[in-house]
Amino acid sequence: MSEKELHSGGCSCGAVRYETHGKPTRVAVCHCRYCQTRTGSAFGMNVYFEDSQIQITSGELKDYSFLNNAKRQFRNRFCPNC
Ligand SMILES: [Zn+2]
Ligand SMILES: [Zn+2]
Q: Which domain holds residue 18?
């Protein structure tokens, strides 16, 4: 029997909903300046999936790309409402 792992979640206003299928490729704690800024904390908890493992089930996403202080390229996708 194959093991299935399904998680669902969404944004604060409820417009965007998503599902992830399978185990994450990486789980990490990061203390870069961006993670500190976005969380208002000393570090951020990050969970990574392949694009094929993520399904947006409702809502529209907006993109924002930037280089963090370690010169690493990131692309954020988020709800434009909240
Ligand atoms: Zn929202
Ligand atoms: Zn970070």
A: 6-78
